[in-house]
Design a protein that fits this description.
single chain, 172 residues, mainly alpha, Arc Repressor Mutant, subunit A, 3-stranded antiparallel sheet
Length: 172
Amino acid sequence: MQSIIDRIKQSELTLRISADDFERFLKSLQTLSCLKIGNLLEGISFSEMSLIHIVIEYPQKHDGEPVTVVQASEELNISVPAVSRTLRGLVAKNILRRLSDDNDRRVVKIAPTENCEEIIKVNFRKLISIVDMALSGFSDDEISSAVDIYCRLSEAMQSAVQTVQESMEQQV
């Protein structure tokens, strides 16, 4: 089987980075995506932590309005059924609760319970500790530069993926 570098060299595609750097980039993405950070959390999975984060942050950015299941799915870029499954588990654990909309019974809003704050404290402390440990060998300038590049890369990748998806939809 051909290596990634060989495939790139044989293709007609040109990259703005070397084939070696592209391979290193892909391997680092794979390494990050394979980390089992969720196994280190107490009482919740990483996907549950992501939903909790949205439930807490959304009202702060939207005049105190709780997030709906549909809005949470858009924020997390996952399907509504996936959010509903995750929410069901967090409701069973008494971490989040469903709120019904007085104007539209089909709309389900999500709010934290009193138990949510303690779960967040414990797990955010743990995540901060992990990130701090991982960044301990970097200077403040290196960390700032890396964050800037990572954020820009994330936005650029999102835009590129969206462009390709739209192009594929037009071809159909």
